[in-house]
Amino acid sequence: MKNPFYPLVICSLLLSAQAMAQDDSTYKQKLQHQKDSIREAINREEGRDKLLSYNKLASLYYMDGMDELKMDTLLTLYTEMDAEAQKQEDYNFCAVARGNILGVYLNARMYDRLIEVAPEHLRFIKEHKAWKHYFNVYSRYIMTFMLRGNYEEGITHAGILYREAEELENKSGMATALYAMATVYQRQRRYEEVERCCRQCITLATGDEHTSRILVDAHHLLCEALIKTKRYDDLLEVAAGYEKANQGYDAYAKMTVISDWANLWMIYAKYYCYTGDFDKAEEYCQKIEDVVSAPAYKIDIYRIRAHIYNSRGEYAQALEMIEKVSEQRAGTTEFAELYDINVLKVDVLARMHQAEEITVLYQEALALNDSLRNIDYARQIDEIHTQYEVNRHIEEKERNRNYALLATIGFALAIVALVIWIVYSRRLQEKNRNLVRRLREQDALALRLEQLQAIQPDDLGTAIPTDPLYQRLIALLNDEVYTDSELTRATLVARLNTNDRYLSDLIKQHFNQTVSDLITTYRLRHARRLLADPHCTLTIEAIALDSGFGTRTTFHILFRKHYGLSPAEFRRLSLQENE
């Protein structure tokens, strides 16, 4: 059997719809008459009818606004309703009364009081196994931690609630816990966790009319998370499920809940705005305006229209919409929203080439960005910043503005330089790798030719000259005569038993090099092979000496000159190629 009392929000919407057709004075008179009639009914009714009258009277006070007097009246009504329900042993109504007491504290932002009394109310509701209400009341408790900025505590309690529901195998409770957890993650901008919780919540809530309300809310929260992460393709699929969820809840509530449809249309408006279909976005904005007038919807509509005007180049209209958002959000603690609208304003002003205004907004955005991490700290900073702005001189304003501009330019240049350096480094590294590969291929080819010819080949040809002097020169090179750091042109001439001119001509003919260049070439090849050998444990300085170079400095200079990279770089890249 369907629950005989609907959520208070439904009652409020029904009564609000009736009131819209009346003027304010007539409406208030009728409302007071309804209150008086219900009070008389409470005095004469008994049983369940009396409890229903208590609930209806409280709904009228909720609809009539929330000042301190009405809050006291509501608390009194719910306390009397709780006492009457205990007398009748109707613990579901007790749970409703106690849950609504917490709701009063929540709406009045009396978070400390709510946290103080909630554990006892939850214990009572749990003791009498009013599980449906237990999960809903606990979710309000979790919401209080979120509103106070105690996110980790909120997540912890959501986890406790989920485990309790899981032990009871209560899918509705599990879905409620997941949704509560998702709302905390949403406030922290942890959108991956929001998506995970919402999708699990939707899976649990689908197919049960008693969870149709939370199914609607989970779809809405998931759509918002997808918009924040620009997952527009996934958004359309979820929005289609959102529409079905709205239809299901309307059937369950036996009425059209306009606010749910307005929320869905807002999702579509944002989707079309951010994907560039501005005509569609405007259609949905107008559709929302035709059915609701709540400030929250106006703020989103102003923000969307600001994007539309900005994209169309209508900057004055865009700024007008942004100012309307700022007016509506004046005094808000939603720093994330303020930060986002300031980012949009910076974009508009940048297109209008308004540098001074951008600087001011840039400073404000930095403060707001810090506020997202620590709300209490941000409030203190904001107060200090405001006081500073009032007292500082015109000259200081100009100087700070210039500093901000210079810092922004410097930061941008640093980012550009970093990007250039990264790209250059990657390209240079790839170039060096290719160079190492080619050198190693040359070494492999040289080794193969050496095996075939039983001599040390040069890079210019493989023919074997018959000149005896050439044969003696090759023999000395094969014996690694070049590794002697004392080897010079004169000592080489002496060892070959020839003259300087004849040796120079022979090397020029067969190697196209001078005597010194030939010795350097063979020393570098020798060093290169040692550097590329994964089993070689010699230091670079030792390799330089072993290859015939007198000093490590000479070796570095000649190696980089011939190969375009240092010995250390060549060794590192060669070892990487061997892995």
Can you characterise this structure?
The chain is mainly alpha-helical and 579 residues long. Among the domains are: 1-129, Serine Threonine Protein Phosphatase 5, Tetratricopeptide repeat; 131-256, Tetratricopeptide repeat domain (Serine Threonine Protein Phosphatase 5, Tetratricopeptide repeat, Alpha Horseshoe), CATH 1.25.40.10; 465-578, Orthogonal Bundle (Arc Repressor Mutant, subunit A), CATH 1.10.10. It is 80% helix and 0% strand. It has helices at 8-19, 24-44, 47-63, 68-88, 91-107, 111-127, 131-147, 151-167, 171-187, 191-205, 212-228, 232-253, 258-274, 278-291, 295-312, 315-328, 335-351, 355-373, 375-391, 394-453, 468-478, 489-496, 500-511, 515-532, 540-546, 552-563, 567-578. Helix 11 (212-228) packs antiparallel against helix 12, helix 15 runs parallel beside helix 17 (335-351) and helix 18 (355-373) crosses helix 20 (394-453). The chain is elongated, with a radius of gyration of 40 Å.
Largest pleated sheet: none
Computed CA radius of gyration, to the nearest angstrom: 40 Å
What is the annotated CATH architecture of the domain at 1-129?
Answer: Alpha Horseshoe
Report the portion of residues in β strands.
under 5%
- Oligomer designation: single chain
Q: What's the overall average pLDDT, rounded?
A: 79
Terminus-to-terminus distance: 72 Å
Estimate percent helicity: over 70%
Q: Given the C-alpha coordinates, what overall shape results?
A: elongated
The succession of helices and strands, N to C, reads: HHHHHHHHHHHHHHHHHHHHHHHHHHH
Low-pLDDT parts are: 1-22, 375-391, 454-462
Helix-strand category:
mainly alpha
